[in-house]
Amino acid sequence: MAKTSKTKTAQPIAVDRKPKPVVELKLTDFQTFVCDRVADLMLRGGHDYDLENLLCAAIGHYYRTMFPRTRMGDCTEQEKERVTKYIDEHLDDWRTKLAREWPRPEDPKQVEPKGVMERVYAFWNSDLRTHLDGFMDEAGSDDKRLLHDILMDWESTKLPADRDDPRAVLATAFASAVDEAHVYFKVPSSIKDLVDGYVRILLEGRDAEPAEAA
Predict the structure, then answer these.
(1) How far lies 167's CA from each of 158, 159, 182, 185, 210, in Å?
(2) According to a count of CB atoms within 10 Å of the terminal CB, is the N or C end of the chain lower?
(3) CA-to-CA distance for 59 and 170, rounded, in angstroms?
(4) Which pTM was predicted?
(5) SS3 per residue for the chain
(6) Does the pLDDT of residue 211 top 60, yes or no?
(7) Is the pLDDT of residue 190 over 60?
(8) How far is it, in rounded angstroms, from Cα 42 to Cα 40?
(9) CA 123 to CA 41: how far, in whole Å?
(10) What is the pLDDT of residues 3-25, one digit of tens each?
């Protein structure tokens, strides 16, 4: 009796087609701190040198990400030259876009500020209101009474908003509230050293008067 051969049919290999879970990487506390400082520099503005360094780093990183050295076949020096050239060609454009573009107000009825300075002032106003709301919720009665006295003094001595006041009225009001006999003035930074030298001369003359009288 002849033996019959059985043909084995290949079974398909089971493949797990379930999507692999995405591992969410969270920033560390210090990374969050650095990101907050960068965001503060972009929103509030800062020293021109700091802002330029930030943009140069961002542009350089963007170029290296889009055109990796290994894919371009460049050596280290060639990559450095390409990155430097790319930064020089795009720095002004990035700086202009950063100044012109601004987060839109969450409230559609709110008028969007125009111009760089109006946008910066709008952000300051929003940030200050947030801090004041937090202060009113968390501060003790003594701190609230102190702030109330300072603002009352400021309101009674300030000039109208359309007039330039050389006095630092809020700082003077604070000094008065904490019983410090100081009056503060605002001076342009271009003559700060000159004014400082003049004040020192006045103070030295005042201190020398009792000795001469004796």
Answers:
(1) 9, 9, 12, 4, 30
(2) N
(3) 41
(4) 0.44
(5) CCCCCCCCCCCCCCCCCCCCCCCCCCCCHHHHHHHHHHHHHHHHCCCHHHHHHHHHHHHHHHHHHHCCHHHHCCCHHHHHHHHHHHHHHHHHHHHHHHHHCCCCCCCCCCCCCCCHHHHHHHHHHHHHHHHHHHHHHHCCHHHHHHHHHHHHHHHHHCCCCCCCCCECHHHHHHHHHCCCCCCCECCCHHHHHHHHHHHHHHHHHHHHHHHHHC
(6) no
(7) yes
(8) 5
(9) 12
(10) 555 555 555 555 556 666 656 67
Dump pLDDT digits (tens) for 102-111: 666 666 666 6
Round to whole Å and give the CA distance between 198 and 13. Answer: 90
Instruction: Answer for the pair 182, 172: CB distance below 8 angstroms, yes or no.
Output: yes
How does residue 58 score in pLDDT terms, banded at 50, 70 and 90? very high
Neighbours of 174 (CB within 10 A): 20
Amino acid at 69: R
Question: How much of the chain, in percent, has pLDDT values that exceed 90?
Answer: 11
Q: Residue 91 has what pLDDT?
A: 92
Distance between CA atoms of residues 78 and 71, nearest Å: 13
User: Domain limits of the chain?
Assistant: 29-100, 140-207
Cα–Cα distance, 207 to 108 (Å, whole number): 61
